[in-house]
Amino acid sequence: MNRILLVEDDALIVESLTSFLKTEGFEVKAVPGQKEALDCLDSERFDLALLDITLQNGNGFSLCGAMRQEYDVPVIFLTASGEEYSVVAGLDMGAEDYIRKPFRPRELVSRIRTVLRRTGKHHRLIRFYSLCVDMEKAQVTKNGQEIFLSALEYRLLLIFCQNQGIVLTREKLLEELWDIAGEYVNDNTLTVYIKRLREKIEDDPAKPEMIKTVRGMGYRA
Questions:
Q1: Measured in whole angstroms, how far is the alpha carbon of residue 30 from the centre of its chain?
Q2: What are residue 117's phi and psi, to 5 degrees?
Q3: For 65-117, how does the pLDDT look when each residue is reduced to its tens digit (9 = 90+)?
Q4: Beta carbons within 8 Å of 208's beta carbon, 6+ residues apart
Q5: Could you tell me which of 70, 69, 87 has the C-alpha nearest to residue 78?
Q6: What's the angle, vertex CA 33, arms to CA 19 and CA 111, rounded to 5?
Q7: Strand bridging mode 75-79 / 97-100
């Protein structure tokens, strides 16, 4: 599973982008400034960094320069500044890509995966019980046999893969699926998709082992 360091001080962007990237199979650590980012890089492994230029302390350019000298982590700039000199400066400092805000989340994911493949850091497989989820192909197999999931079933499975051991409320799942689908997903629809997903991945859907119901709270993988 690829780990991404998000360096951004806008709380709304952090919340929405972290949530979306998690549903796409990434683990995300978000920090607001250069100091916090360097502290994380000293103690943790990351496969890619998303940097804004304007930060609470320091700036994206100086952070990128420090990272290029000391850490083997590819960088993508996410910034509202689309001035030519900013783009050129960022790429000349060694950034792999430069994306102007506002951006389309799926385009960002595509660019992230392109950079990870190009730099040899793409971890495309997630193991979840007896399942193998290939993030690059959006393919799920169980004991070597492919399981065909709808788009929302696949996204729902990824949410559970990314939150193993955590109780997810129905409200949280609905919030995540709303972000993914871009359309209204109601409580009854969630019940239907949980049932369909269990029927496809569980050995015994009546006694689920992968996605368990936590009575009065939600679900836990």
A1: 12
A2: -65, -45
A3: 888 888 889 999 988 876 777 777 778 888 899 888 888 888 898 899 899 88
A4: 198, 202
A5: 87
A6: 45
A7: parallel
